[in-house]
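Q: Predict the bound structure with flavin-adenine dinucleotide.
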Amino acid sequence: MKVTEHLRAAKSTLFSIEILPPLKGKSIQSIYDSIDPLMEFKPSFVDVTYHREEYVYKKREGGYLEKVSIRKRPGTVGICAAIMNRYHVDAVPHIICGGFTKEETESALIDLHFLGVDNVLLLRGDAIKAEPAFVPDPAGHAYALDLVKQVMDMNRAKYLHEDVIDMAPTNFCLGVAGYPEKHFEAPNPLADLRALKAKVDAGADFIVTQMFFDNSKYFAFVERCREAGINVPIIPGIKILTGKKQLVTLPKIFHIDLPQDLYEAAEKCKTDAEVREVGIEWAIQQSKELVKANVPCLHFYTMGVSEATRRVASEVF
Ligand code: FAD
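A: Predicted complex:
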């Protein structure tokens, strides 16, 4: 079922989660272990992230360092199929531009279509860790917008090689990312909003936001989107603060602010367990306010750790 159909059929705010594929070589059991405790809250869909290759340096004979490209968290398509098979819940694979040719993207989308996956979340992806800026594959896409256009073409039975005849259309529901606090590369909020509108005008059916800890930023973002003529559902993304290190890593990696009250309360904590309690309480209050405002769905970034999400969900749903 499409995400938009879930949202239309809903009588109240839905619950959904995002999970990460396990590190290469780890069992899929770790995925089940992180989803099992959340099934009682009936997630409408489960997003599975996609991770591009990274460079690592391997020491070779004679002291030489060899630069090797590895994908540390493969398996998104297989995990989606496994989730749908085991839980009978819709899986939403993330598809990224970075590191993929258009041809490879088309093949992945054909696999997903054959597997009965109805939804995709289309993203540009970030720069490779060792590189200062995002570089598209020479035969790939530079922006998520181009990915939206490719999937929309497939939904209209237009594949990459026009000489194929009698092509069957796909029927994907398309999600894209939105940034209440602006994407870090955008020169200003208006430019970012225009880039988001271009994705929606090209066919995106729903938006999932970057994490935010201050609801007023989400509400203001939704208002700006509506004023700009972006009328698709905007699903808020929630991350629960679970450790002291995250006071530094979350703003650095995701380019978001931590509200002063939350920051100070977490700073005072002596252990990660105490920080987690602060984070859970913050997320409960945040979620309750969002539900009261009738947001379509609360989408939790579990990052492979579901206990905190379970605690919040049990207070909210
Ligand atoms: P885009 O929409 O392409 O925008 C990128 C930047 O370019 C923005 O600054 C935008 O304003 C600007 N821009 C867009 N179009 C144009 C244009 N035509 N001309 C000039 N500028 C333009 N990353 C992963 O690697 N894997 C994942 O699974 C993943 N999941 C995510 C899920 C969510 C909900 C979110 C919010 C992010 C996720 N990311 C993921 C991170 C994402 O890939 C990065 O934030 C990335 O830097 C931007 O992706 P985007 O799709 O928003 O890019």
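A: The two ends are 22 Å apart (CA to CA).
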